[in-house]
Write a sequence for this structure.
């Protein structure tokens, strides 16, 4: 295994070239995942499509992620991590380019599907490689790569809003992932990756415990709520609050930016507070934010609602992941892979459902789905914690604490 000083289980956490490459591509993938939301009102206007067809773009994105989650481990065994990583990066750039040039829904839907599949495959390899490169500091590496994705998710709202404001339009923003992925390929193309475990090392392990599946189920409403707000928040601002399309895209920065801040601050809070209280507490914060947004017809309280909702949602997925993997610490690879599939499945259903309901009754009544998802999340997480003492996550090892 290729390691640099400080990554072999001793010393402090060291960010080597592979680590920075993984973070850089996570930013690019975060951009690709988040850009459809701020662009949706403009994309629908350009293509003349309904919210239901618009929602299919998020379904395509998530379907690609689920497809990648089911096959990437087998592909890595054949191709190796390095080849799968760069193939994923190339596909991510290709998908973004198709959205940028697509003047028919078939083209933009294909771009979303390719973006989801390729980016997810690349991310799985990144996470597995960071796990092997930083075995004593996995919590730090995983927190930072998720923060990098959140940083990437903030950029589209700012960029699309600015480009529309100066009259350039939303499409050039989608060239950003193409340029960024190309630059990273030029700078890091020769970087080596740790070898993947052999088939023998990953077989003959016990099944995941029943407690794991309860926490896995909690990902469905959590991810669904996040994507409903991210996907349709700009449309809500246009139709209900009355903002211009470019301004609505820019205002979504409050939501995505709050998620970055929440994860940066939440990493420190998580050292003192156990995952379940954090899940329940942040769910309450997110619910308050969504209720404020949902009840608003004026820009300022709507933006405040987006900010509070983003702060609440930011820590749900990291803490649910800690709870889920804590039930099966000897099988983090399989546990994380199932989480990816469950989260992708939620993205397939939730934004499309909200869009379809909005086409029938209007987007304001349809947004009532989001508070219901928050309540369902709190219920599942609480029930999961009460099933038995085996549900409590294992305490962090002394070598991995203190720097998250």
């Amino acid at each position: 295994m290729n390691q640099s000083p400080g990554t072999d289980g001793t010393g402090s956490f060291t960010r080597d070239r592979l680590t920075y490459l993984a973070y850089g591509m996570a930013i690019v993938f975060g951009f690709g995942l988040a850009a459809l939301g701020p662009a949706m009102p403009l994309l629908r206007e350009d293509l003349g499509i309904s919210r239901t067809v618009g929602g299919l773009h998020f379904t395509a994105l998530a379907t690609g992620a689920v497809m990648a989650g089911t096959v990437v481990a087998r592909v890595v065994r054949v191709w190796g991590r390095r080849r799968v990583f760069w193939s994923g990066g190339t596909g991510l750039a290709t998908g973004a380019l198709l959205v940028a040039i697509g003047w028919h829904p078939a083209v933009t839907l294909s771009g979303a599907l390719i973006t989801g599949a390729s980016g997810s495959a690349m991310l799985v390899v990144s996470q597995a490689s960071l796990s092997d490169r930083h075995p004593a500091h996995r919590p730090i590496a995983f927190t930072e790569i998720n923060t990098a994705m959140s940083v990437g998710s903030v950029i589209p709202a700012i960029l699309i809003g600015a480009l529309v404001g100066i009259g350039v339009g939303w499409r050039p923003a989608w060239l950003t992932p193409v340029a960024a992925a190309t630059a990273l390929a030029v700078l890091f193309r020769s970087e080596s990756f740790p070898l993947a475990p052999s088939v023998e090392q990953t077989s003959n392990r016990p099944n995941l415990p029943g407690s794991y599946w309860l926490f896995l189920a909690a990902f469905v409403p959590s991810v669904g709520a996040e994507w409903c707000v991210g996907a349709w928040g700009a449309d809500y601002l246009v139709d209900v609050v009355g903002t211009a399309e470019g301004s609505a895209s820019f205002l979504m920065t409050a939501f995505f930016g709050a998620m970055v801040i929440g994860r940066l601050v939440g990493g420190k809070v998580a050292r003192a507070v156990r995952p379940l209280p954090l899940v329940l507490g942040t769910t309450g914060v997110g619910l308050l934010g969504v209720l404020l947004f949902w009840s608003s017809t004026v820009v300022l309280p709507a933006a405040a609602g987006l900010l509070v909702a983003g702060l609440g949602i930011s820590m749900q997925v990291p803490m649910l992941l800690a709870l889920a993997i804590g039930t099966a610490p000897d099988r983090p690879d399989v546990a994380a892979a199932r989480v990816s599939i469950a989260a992708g499945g939620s993205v397939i259903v939730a934004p499309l459902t909200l869009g379809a309901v909005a086409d029938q009754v209007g987007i304001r009544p349809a947004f009532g789905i989001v508070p219901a998802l928050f309540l369902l999340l709190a219920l599942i997480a609480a029930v999961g914690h009460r099933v038995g003492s085996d549900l409590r996550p294992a305490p962090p090892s002394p070598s991995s604490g203190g720097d998250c």
The mean pLDDT is 83. The domain at 17-195 is CATH 1.20.1250.20 (Growth Hormone; Chain: A;). The chain is about 75% helix and 0% strand.
